[in-house]
Amino acid sequence: MRERIQRVIQDIGGLTALDGICDKAAGRVQWVTRPTAVKNALSGTWLGHPVHPALTDLPIGAWTTAFFLDLTAGRASASSARRLVGLGLIAAVPTAASGASDWSDTYGPTRRIGLVHALGNSAGTLLQAASWVARRRGRHRLGMALSGVGLGFTVCTAYLGGHLSFALGNGVNHTAFQPTVSDWTDVADLSELGEGQLVRVTPGGVPVVLVQHEGTVFALSATCVHAGGPLDEGKIVEDGCIQCPWHGSTFRLADGRAVRGPAAVDEPSWEVKVTDGRVHVRSSTS
Fold it and tell me: How do residues 42-84 score in pLDDT, each as one tens digit?
């Protein structure tokens, strides 16, 4: 069974025929989420954690509970089950929006699998909406059947969502397992750091980007927490921040704080000292 499921997912990831639809849809989502406030809200930058996984618990929980009431209490729980179906429909709106925002910054097989994940969830949501209408009109058995099928779609696509996160690493912190460098390490000559110039160094084998901004030398991990993009190939933007070249995640040079998504967690910052014209760094102890 496991091998068959994995083969199906691999086949979905290889469906290059989906690329045209994916690119158009992703472009529209990126246009809608271009404002920083919108992107941060949907990415979870304000929370310090991706918001989509947390939101998925709400519709899934509501619909699962409604299905359980249908099975165990029947018409005696008709009103409660209908309200739970409605709650799930309301919660599905921000859940889908945050998922679309995350999905728009993916590529290749991840984007294709994500599209099928979204389509499956959409089908499940439409069936739940039809269930709510049927229940509202007193057709309880039809509502139960529609909810059951809809929940089946949701469970299957939830598996795809788990595969995207845990097998393909979409949305995980790409610096989570980088080693700590506790000793001061000589990495560069101060003369190599022109104002605003990004320099990549590797203390202890860890990629770090150095930059001199307004006379102060800053250091952050060079691997973007969002998708592993090379920050040393990015650019310095206003308010003393560095922007990733891949998806536009922006971090404050002074402390690595994420100020614009899709990054939801802060970039690791490094302590810096300059001795005799040499730049030394070590992992931040704070």
Answer: 999 999 999 999 999 999 999 999 999 999 998 899 999 999 9
Q: Nearest-5° angle of CA 58, CA 64, CA 68?
A: 145
pLDDT tens digit string along 230-283? 999 999 998 899 999 999 999 999 999 999 999 999 999 999 999 999 999 999
